[in-house]
Amino acid sequence: MVNRRKAIENIFKGIGILGTGGLIWGTAAKAASDLHPVLRPPGAIPEHDFKKACIKCGKCVEVCPYDTLKLANVDDDSFIGTPYFEPRKTPCYLCTDAPCTTECPTNALDITKLQDEQEKIDINKSKMGLAVVHKESCIAFWGIQCVACYRSCPLISEAITLEYEKNEVTKKHANLIPVIHSDICTGCGICEHACVVEKAAIKILPVELAEGEVGDHYIKSWDKNDENRMQEKNASHSNDKDVESSLDYLNDENELFD
User: Fold this and answer.
1) Which candidate, 29, 169, 176, 180, has a CA 20 to 30 Å from the CA of 230?
2) 111 & 169 share domain
3) What are residue 176's DSSP bridge partners?
4) Nearest to 82 by CA among 91, 92, 74
């Protein structure tokens, strides 16, 4: 009888331990998934869909020749088991055959995002993120000549260009400052990896964080197409107002019989 009671107690203890372990793991997974977005491999579909489509198989990590990719664990700022990379440590070196993307079995990494019109892989179509410069810590803005990010960029003179800016301190020299072109930048992170200051002054952020949104009520006065867009919008609003005022008139009995 005693042995039977002891056995039942052990069963309930085991259930309790398993339940607690599952709760801790579930809480950790939820906390990790709620943290800020991270950088995904080339061809990644939108983050919300990516987390659903990725089966955490690790194939993309296995085939990466530079050990750039790693799978997130409970200590990482990502969704547990999904691939990501940290450019300051190891950037994406833009393999021309995109093995990480082609090996993905679920299209969480979508090869069509990297293909040109002839369906050939063009790794420069990658949009893993967008480079952003922190002017206050970029020594080029201090007047110290530094072209590390510019020289390291695989799309040199395209994704990053150098522009002259008057040095307001000396009044005699010009600062040679880096300018990022968002339509060309792949987000590979080689520039961040190459940055010479202690904490990188140029960083790769997920596109949705790096880019702003103007809103459709602003207009580029120098752009004829944008002018036409605004005129069409105004005409649409004007027609809506006319219809509304007509309906109000028809529904107003006093107006009809005066």
Assistant:
1) 180
2) no
3) 164
4) 74
> In which domain, by residue range, is 141 found?
129-233
Concatenated DSSP letters of 28-86: HHHHHHTS---PPPTTBPPHHHHHHH-----HHHHH-TT---EE--TTSSS-TT-EE--
Work out how many domains the chain is built from and give that number: 2
What tens digit of pLDDT does each residue of 202-256 get?
Answer: 999 999 999 888 887 787 778 877 777 777 776 666 555 554 555 555 555 555 4
Q: Cβ atoms within 10 A of the Cβ of 108, count?
A: 24
State the CATH number of the domain containing residue 105: 3.30.70.20
Closest to 148 measured CA to CA, from 168, 136, 133: 133
Is 63:100 a contact under the CB 8 Å cutoff?
yes
**Residue 62 belongs to a domain:** yes
pLDDT per residue as tens digits for the range 29-66: 444 444 467 999 999 999 999 999 999 999 999 999 99
